[in-house]
Specification:
It is a single chain. With 230 residues, the protein is α/β, with parallel strands linked by helices. The chain has a single domain, classed as Rossmann fold (3-Layer(aba) Sandwich). The protein is built from seven helices and ten strands. Strand 5, helix 4 and strand 6 form a beta-alpha-beta unit. The longest helix is centred in the middle third of the chain and has 13 residues. It is globular. The protein binds S-adenosylmethionine (SAM).
């Protein structure tokens, strides 16, 4: 039954006008509605959003809760939630349609391929929300704040564009700080290893995803860092 539901969600994805999918990471390209091929690199604003507003990505968006909340809070920005899991993105897509959030879209791809879908300077800001920590050193290059990912982000993030990480994971937090310290082109703008210990410094931090809620129930501390990658 669960598998049938998942398959139904996968097939539903091609009925949403704001969902774009990459099925083959070895030859990255995108399909949109009705599985029609689309070319959005460099054209997200003109061809999809049909405005000239800044683009913000949420990486590892899961069900897209942050993407939706940010989209509702900032109607004058465009938000794209990115995740490889179709059944999770489906939930975000359903809610964006229910809420008429025209400034929200979803991109289903492995984040390792993300630079195939954006032109230099096309993105203004990146959120990374509760990504998998990949604690083992042998998996370091799968952490979304590891050097290899910063090199992908550099290819399309505007100069001065910011990256923001929200996590409960002590190991990811430590590993991220190490990665950032080793890269001379990175400037940390703000960091806080227990954001709910005092009034929030940024209103966007109040949103809580499915994973964040479950971490808070277990008494984990939520950490947040924002930085620029030159
Ligand atoms: C722990 S969940 C967090 C989801 C959501 N941000 C939240 O807070 O509820 C991590 C998500 O990252 C996605 N993910 C991890 N590595 C990824 C990658 N390399 N490419 C695409 N998605 C990835 C997984 O599919 C999963 O949905």
């Amino acid at each position: 039954m669960a598998r049938r539901n998942k398959l139904r969600k996968f097939s539903d994805l091609s009925t949403f006008k704001n969902v774009f999918q990459c099925f083959d990471p070895t030859a990255p390209s995108l399909v949109g509605m009705d599985n029609q091929k689309v070319e959005l690199k460099g054209k997200w604003k003109t061809d999809h959003f049909k405005n000239n507003n800044p683009i913000v990505l949420e990486l590892a968006c899961g069900r897209g809760e942050y993407t939706l909340a940010l989209g509702a809070m900032y109607p004058d920005k465009n938000f794209i939630g990115v995740d490889v899991k179709g059944a999770r993105i489906w939930q975000g897509a359903v809610h964006s349609r229910e809420q008429n959030l025209e400034n929200v879209a979803f991109l289903r791809t492995r984040i390792e391929k993300i630079d195939f879908f954006f032109m230099p300077d096309e993105v203004e800001e990146i959120w990374i929300t509760f990504p998998d920590p990949f604690e083992r050193a042998s998996k370091a290059n799968r952490r979304l704040t590891y050097h290899n990912f910063h090199d992908y982000y550099r290819k399309f993030l505007k100069p001065g564009g910011i990256v923001q990480l929200k996590t409960d994971s002590d190991s990811l937090w430590e590993n991220t700080l190490e990665s950032l310290a080793e890269d001379k082109r990175i400037t940390i703008l703000y960091q806080n290893d227990n954001i709910y210990d005092s009034p929030l410094d940024f209103p966007e931090l109040e949103f809580k995803t499915y994973y964040e809620k479950s971490h808070l129930e277990k008494g984990r501390l939520i950490k947040y860092i924002r930085y620029t990658i030159h």
